[in-house]
Amino acid sequence: MDVRVETHSGYKADEYPKRFWIGDSALDVVEVEDRWYSPGCSYFRVFAGDAARYLLRRDEKSGGWTACRV
């Protein structure tokens, strides 16, 4: 599903997600549990404020984000 993501930008843009919206629901990222990179995409497994884990994926070319609950 497509989502809107608010990120922290430190030494690089969109370094890690801080908050994301699924529909009208805003979820705070409590913890980034894991992150990895592949050609063209960044992945983040996060623990969110609703006590669920999500996999967030950022497409480097389009800048778009997707999410799925894991």
Features:
70 residues; 6-stranded antiparallel beta barrel; globular
Overall description:
The protein has 70 residues and is mostly beta strands. The chain has one domain. It has no helices and six strands. A six-stranded antiparallel barrel has the order 1-2-3-4-5-6. Strand 2 and strand 3 form a beta hairpin. It is globular. It starts with a strand and ends with a strand. The model has no long low-confidence stretch (mean pLDDT 93).
Arrangement of strands in the largest sheet = 1-2-3-4-5-6
Structural class: mainly beta
- Ranges where pLDDT stays below 50 over 5 or more residues in a row are none
Number of strands: 6
Strand content: over 45%
Query: Outline, from the CA principal axes?
Result: globular
Largest sheet: 6 strands, antiparallel, barrel
Tally the helices: 0
Number of domains: 1
Tell me the radius of gyration. 11 Å
Mean pLDDT: 93
| String of helices and strands | EEEEEE
Distance between the termini: 13 Å
Reconstruct the topology from this structure.
Layout: E1 2-8, E2 16-22, E3 25-38, E4 41-48, E5 53-59, E6 65-69
Antiparallel strand pairs: 1-2, 1-6, 2-3, 3-4, 4-5, 5-6
Produce a short descriptive summary:
The protein is an all-beta fold and 70 residues long. It contains no helices and six strands.
